[in-house]
Amino acid sequence: MPWRAEHAGRRVGWDVGGAHVKACLLEGERIVDVAQWPCPLWRGLDQLDVALATARERWPQAWDARTRHVATMTGEMVDLFADREEGVARLAARLAESLGPSLVLWGARSGFCAPHESGRRWRDIASANWRATAEVLAPRMGNALLVDIGSTTTDLVPLRHGAVAALGAADAERLATGELVYQGVVRTPLCALASRVVFDGRVVNVMKEFFATTADVYRLTGELDATHDQHAPADGGAKDLDATRRRLARMVGRDAREQAPGQWRALAEAFREAQLVDLESQLLRVESASGLRDDAPLAGAGCGAFLARELARRVGRPFVCFADVVCTPSAATDDVRTRWIDTCAPAVAVALLAADED
């Protein structure tokens, strides 16, 4: 698709997920702003409308004729849609309605396409956001292992000789290779991480119930940025430490008042360790199949980049975050901005890919 000159300056990259909408405002090749809004898409397309309206309030200039909009998605997976093909088509139509005629969709290996082409190219478009991040990093890093740990999922993508070296393309293939691990640091139910944990000096069974999520764990460990914690807890309650401990206690059949706060912090650490052990095993599996050298760095992204850093330490690889790779040395980023760039890596990536295409 030809790129019109009037869109050469400003681009907005969108990543439309099932739980969040992420976006990046790019001027030339400069990252001006990055943001994320909650979007529980399973409740209806009106949730997407709300997120887009909020984005428009933040960036009114991005809805003029000089702006190119580029989007990737994973939201086609939600159970609002009968299947992924329907999900891609309906999301493409809704985005085009809001964002206008400049919109193009990221089709992974086949590149960008217009929304009206989404019907025949839905397999390329569906859940391809990981590929955008990998395509941006590959030529910049040469050899690396991308570890993007988000609110809900983890992507493990080998990059070799400046190209994406993933074995899988679609979600089903990536689940089979270990390159997609369906757990993250916000929305994953704790009962999905472990059947048993050590608590109060004993190995105890974990209740197979949706009492708490990984956000509760990383709230107690202090690692989850509060601004990335955008969804209601499992009980719909508060996010303060007392409420967080109450939810965690239920996982082992207790009340929070039965133990000191330090015991619940220890339980959070036990769930953290269970998640890290699982992620490390999948990482080693992908690493082994990739043939990457031992000195190839691990590139961390997502709101769970703090876990990616720990994984790099465990497997003995150098660590670099996505933001440090894509931002020029002259565009030094503060910690808050860096975390947002990492958190919204696919949105940043599709905006940069559009700039490269220009």
How is this structure best described in words?
This protein is an alpha/beta fold. It folds into 2 domains: 5-127 and 327-357, Nucleotidyltransferase, domain 5 (2-Layer Sandwich); 143-325, 2-Layer Sandwich (Nucleotidyltransferase, domain 5), CATH 3.30.420. Helices cover 39% and strands 19% of the residues. It has 12 helices and 14 strands. The strands form 3 sheets. The protein has a 6-stranded mixed beta sheet with strand order 3-2-1-4-5-6, with helices on both faces. The longest helix is centred in the C-terminal third of the chain and has 30 residues, at 261-290. It starts with 9 loop residues before the first strand and ends with a helix.
**Rg, nearest Å:** 20 Å
What is the first-to-last residue Cα distance? 10 Å
Strand order of the largest sheet: 3-2-1-4-5-6
Order of helices and strands: EEEHEHEEHHEEEHEEEHHHEHEHHH
Find the count of extended strands (DSSP E, 2+ residues): 14
CATH topology of the largest domain: Nucleotidyltransferase, domain 5
Unreliable stretches: 1-7
Question: What structural category characterises the helix and strand content?
Answer: alpha/beta
The CATH class name of the largest domain reads Alpha Beta
What integer is the average pLDDT? 94
Second CATH tier, the architecture of the largest domain:
2-Layer Sandwich
Query: What share of the residues does DSSP label as strand, in percent?
Result: 15-25%
Number of domains: 2
User: Shape from CA axes?
Assistant: globular
Largest sheet: 6 strands, mixed
CATH homologous superfamily identity of the largest domain: conserved archaeal protein q6m145
The helix tally amounts to 12
The percent range for helix content is 25-40%
